[in-house]
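Task card 7
Instruction: Convert sequence to structure tokens.
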Amino acid sequence: MTTAGPAFRRVLLKLSGQALAGEKGVAIDPARTLEIATHVDRGRQLGVDIGIVVGGGNVFRGVAAAARGMDRVTGDHIGMIATVQNALALQDALESIGTQTRVMSAIEMNEICEPYIRRRAMRHLEKGRVCIFAGGTGNPYFSTDSAAALRALEIGAEAILMAKRTYNGVFTADPETEPTAEFIPRLTYLDAIQRELGVMDVTALSLCMDNDLPIHVFKMTGDNIDRVLAGEDVGTLVATH
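Output:
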């Protein structure tokens, strides 16, 4: 790893809800959550401001519930609350290792976390605190991918880091079902959209494309986050060219 210093001043880390899940159907595994917190803490120690958006799929998926007959808006609201649960678990893990952290929710829950206010979030980041943005965008029909793109732009992040649990980057197909799937080191936003490669949803990718916000897709393991923050080529880069 290079010692020249971090390649980014500020980033937005997007975690799936499944990243916090354990084996045997455990929705939030404290050991796994602490492992992720340790990676984030190492990145913070490099001097990089870190915002985080975490999904809620390990607890509840609004889209899946809607497919089974639940009202979509109600399902999405429950999913937003699930992201708050994950954010609180991650905050607890981060603070247990000494990393100052604030959870900010798009849905007000004043007894357990702060409401999302952009200027307040910027101030937390300037003070070296990790900010976890929960509650999605606060609106139904928008995924946490869209929330990640939106919050990244609002806080002036220089890149989105899409941390995956299983594969180190983007492949031409799902390697689990297609053994011949090939790794793709670099993609344009349009390629990712047109080829439906599952990097992010179309709304989020379009927002990143319109604002030239690069996306680094990599496996959240070992020192990968350190290497990405140091400017090394890890996983797949989604950018304009």
